[in-house]
Amino acid sequence: MLNFFKNQTDDICSLADKPITISVRDVSGSGKTRRGTVHLHRSEREPSIFSRSFLTDSTGRAVFYGWMPANLSNITVNLDDTETDGLKLALRELSYIELAFRLFIFSPQTVIRALRLLMAGNIRGFQFRMVRLLDSMIAPRYSDWRHAQAPEETPLKVQDTTTLVVYSIHGSGDAAESTRRSMQSQSYPRLVEVPLPAHRADLPACDDDIWLRIPAGVGLDRDYVARLLEPLHQEEDIVAVYCDEEYFDERTRETKPFFKPAFNGPLAKSGWLAPDAALIRVKSLPESMNLASTTMGNILFDVSRTGLIGHIPLPLFYRPAERVLPAPPQKKKLDKTYHVSVVIPTRDRADLLSRCLLGLFKGTSDVNLDVIVIDNDSRNIDALELMSGYEREGLIRRLVMPGQFNFSKACNLGVAAAKHELVLLLNNDVEPLHSDWLVQMAQELEHESVGACGALLLFPDGFIQHGGVTLGMGSVARHSFHFKHPNSSENLGLIAQRREVSAVTAACLLTRKSLWTLVDGMNEPALPVAFNDVDYCLKLLAQGKKILWTPYARLTHLESVSRRSDDTPEKMRRFAGEEKYMHDHWGPLLQNDPYYNPNLSLYGDDYTLDAKPRDRRCRTTDVRRIVQLGR
């Protein structure tokens, strides 16, 4: 490991919260692609190290770019093959002029989008997009990434060949013949082709056998069957397995990857996930479903009722063309009136609270509301008169919470006083954009398997404030598609899709009072301000519940996007403690969000390729399994 700063505190401090570049040159003449990691050490924070990977090219060169943490204490570099002989490194700070130039050359479209945020007065959004773009500049080309993984993808030694695998090719002609040849060259020996069955009873197979349906024209890695069969042999609870894929992009004439999440029911049903060529236990196949005409996503959705669906984060099959994403499903509305308790923590800010309450009482339909305002020492006369007026009309209940602000305590107090089973946590700076938003959220909790639901929150300028939460992004978690426009192509079509996520923000979170009680609500002493919503959602996941995010509930989040950070030493110490708590309790899960592919970066932009996969083992959405494997 090479240490840039040893006993040079001044040099370290000068780079804190600054953009840097590190030039890497391998002069050993090895002639091979090498994978390296830059470790950014932080003082008095958890995690104490941020690690970011890079690849050298075929000439042995690489350039690392990154924005340094505010409390940087050291920078070290190592290579996965541990050989540092012949490695030359040069580090320097980037000037803002050079930074702007390099960012524009790298992605002019992203810079233009960021400038639109700036022109709208969204300073934090502009800064956020620029930092994420800089951190994305170390993402390797997919061809280089694929080459770097090759040494790890050694031929699989098939240990157990007792299971019979029957397969059906969906299609005909030359495309089917190509796929048939790919199956005939598989390393796993016990394969039998059968006609595409209409129903499970038509399969000439036993319950203990495995079936897969392969689209004609698809090419398979030689170890495809063997690799996907492995977790089915190892874990009886896993009833089906699918993997990532590659496709040929006609526009760029390049092979590109489609890195998928672990099984996501709504995305499977809508067609976005497309877990084609999955291996499925015959005994788990639905008896009445038409296996020839039903999409594989819908088949796996039914199969998931019998056990876990495994996902191997390796691109092991290849499509000859990019798959066209389906149109998102239309929103549905049940003919039902819901009863919802709403908990709104607030202090002063009559302007915000007034709009929030108006949105509830005038801009929300088909819901009987029980509104509880948690007043944390309001002194502003306008705010006090506003709450008193609503109290006199019997529209709200005001509960006074004196003392230092503690969001967890406020929510716990409000939920304890709630009259209804459905409870909505709502910030005082949120207002709806359409009247059926709360009905759309309440519908998601009709299913007993769902523990909480979150909404699409937009800044006043129309950019995304919250599109779900991705674990591990930054230090603990970050909002997905933050500061992107919902109508742009940057969100892979996901912003229009209902989907399972690991967490949602408590700025607008619907849950059940019984579940809140079951997991002891929010943690007041350990998480007074930050990450309490993430912690609550993870506790629900640990209970086997799902977290749903819906685009059919759209609200504006009226936080001041032009206000810069005003952190104090006390707030920074509090935040550091909250970070530590989350890593102590959920560390393995924070590094392995089941709904985010481990081949993708946790530091760059959403869905940016990472040089070093975090975990290549079979994944499921079982949180307890993830934590156990991580430890």
Notes on the protein architecture:
- The protein has 631 residues and is of the alpha+beta class.
- It is 29% helix and 26% strand.
- Strands 16, 17, 18, 19, 20, 21, 22, 25, 26 and 27 form a 10-stranded mixed sheet that branches. Strands 8, 9, 10, 11, 12, 13, 14 and 15 form an 8-stranded mixed sheet that branches. Strands 1-6-3-4 form a 4-stranded antiparallel sheet.
- Strand 17, helix 11 and strand 18 form a beta-alpha-beta unit.
- The longest helix has 22 residues, at 569-590.
Produce the secondary structure layout.
Elements: E1 2-3, H1 9-15, E2 19-26, E3 35-42, E4 49-55, E5 61-67, E6 72-79, E7 87-93, H2 96-106, H3 108-119, H4 123-136, H5 142-149, E8 165-170, H6 173-184, E9 191-193, E10 210-215, E11 219-220, H7 224-234, E12 238-249, E13 254-258, H8 265-270, E14 279-281, H9 296-303, E15 308-319, E16 338-346, H10 350-362, E17 367-375, H11 381-392, E18 396-400, H12 407-417, E19 422-426, E20 430-432, H13 437-444, E21 450-458, E22 464-466, E23 469-471, E24 477-479, E25 499-501, E26 508-512, H14 513-518, H15 532-542, E27 546-557, H16 569-590, H17 623-630
Helix pairs in contact: 2-3, 3-4, 10-11, 16-17
Largest sheet: 10 strands, mixed
Q: Overall mean pLDDT score?
A: 91
Radius of gyration: 26 Å
Q: Structural class per helix/strand content? A: alpha+beta
Question: What's the N-to-C terminus distance?
Answer: 25 Å
Q: What proportion of the residues is helical, as a percent range?
A: 25-40%
Number of strands: 27
Sum up the overall morphology in one term.
globular
> Helical region count?
17
Give the strand content: 25-35%
Low-confidence stretches: 560-564
